[in-house]
Amino acid sequence: MIAGMALKEDVRTFWNRASCGEELYLPSQEAAGFDEHRRKRYELEPYIPGFARFDDTRGKKVLEIGVGLGADHEGFAAAGADLHGVDLTDRAIEMTTRRLAHKGLKSTLRVGDAEHLPFGDGEFDVVYSWGVIHHSPDTPAAVREIHRVLKPGGEARVMIYHTWSLVGMMLWARYGLLRGKPGTSMAQIYASHLESPGTKAYTPTEARGLFRDFSHVETSVVLSQGDLLEGGAGQRHRGPLLSTAKAIFPRWLVRRAAPGLGLFLLITARK
Ligand SMILES: C[S@@+](CC[C@H](N)C(=O)[O-])C[C@H]1O[C@@H](n2cnc3c(N)ncnc32)[C@H](O)[C@@H]1O
C-alpha cells in the first residue's frame, strides 16, 4: 500500500514535469500550438479517431481518464458529448482546460485518480482512456473503477501497452542485452525504461483477464509510432543510436511482417 502510494507520487511527478507529447509536439500554448499538436498526433497515430469514435458520443455522458494534453478530449467535446475528464496531474488539467477554452468547448475537468474515480456508480455511457491505466500502480483497481462508473450496457474504450512489442524488444536490446543483462524481463524493461516508473504491459489474454467483469470484450494490437521509429519515439529516448536506427529502419517490411508486434493493445469492453 505504502509502496503503491510512493510509486503513484513518482508517476505524478514524472507527468507533471511534461505532459505526454508536450516536449516534442506542442510548439506553443496558443490555439495554433494546440492545433499543431492535434494534427501531428493523428498523423502519427491515425487509428485513434476510429477507436475513440468521437462522433458516436454526441449527447452521451463520457468520461476520459488521463486527458494529458487533451487532443482526444477536444474530439469528444467538439462532437457534443456531455463530457468529464480526470488526470492525476494539475499540468494536464491546466493544458486541457486551456485547449478547450481556445475553442470555446466545454468539459468538467478535475484532478482525479483512475483508481478512485470521483463519480457515482453507473453514471457514464462511455469511458475512454488512451495510454493511462498501465502507468497507475494498481491497474486492476482502475479497471474495476471503469466498470463501476459505467451504466449497464456502457462501453469502455481503453488502450494499454502490449508486452510483445517492437518498442519493448528494442528497449530490451538496449538496456538488457547491450548492458550484459539478457535475463532482464520485459516487465522490468517497461517498468524502468519506458515513460513513468512502474509502467506495465499486458498480453491480450491478460487484458481479457483484467476486463473479465465485462460482458463482451474485444482486443486488437496496432503498431505505434514508437514500434515504427517514427516521430520523436518517446519522451525519454534520444541520441545517435536512435537516430541511426530511425534512418535505416525498414518500416514497410515491419508493417507487413510484424503487425502483431505493436505497443498499443486496444480494448473495447461492454458492461
Ligand atoms: C502517456 S500520458 C497519456 C495522456 C493522453 N491520454 C494521451 O494519449 O496523450 C499518461 C497520462 O496518464 C495520467 N495518469 C497516470 N496515472 C493516472 C491515474 N492513476 N489517474 C489518472 N491519470 C493518470 C498522467 O498524468 C498522464 O497525463
Describe the structure.
It is a single chain. This protein is an alpha/beta fold. It has a single domain (2-270), classed as Vaccinia Virus protein VP39 (Rossmann fold, 3-Layer(aba) Sandwich), CATH 3.40.50. Helices cover 42% and strands 18% of the residues. The protein contains twelve helices and seven strands. The protein has a seven-stranded mixed beta sheet with strand order 3-2-1-4-5-7-6, with helices on both faces. Helix 6 (90-103) links the parallel strand 2 (82-87) and strand 3. Helix 8 (166-175) packs across helix 9 (186-193). It is globular. The protein starts with a helix and ends with a strand. The mean pLDDT is 93. Bound molecules: S-adenosylmethionine (SAM).
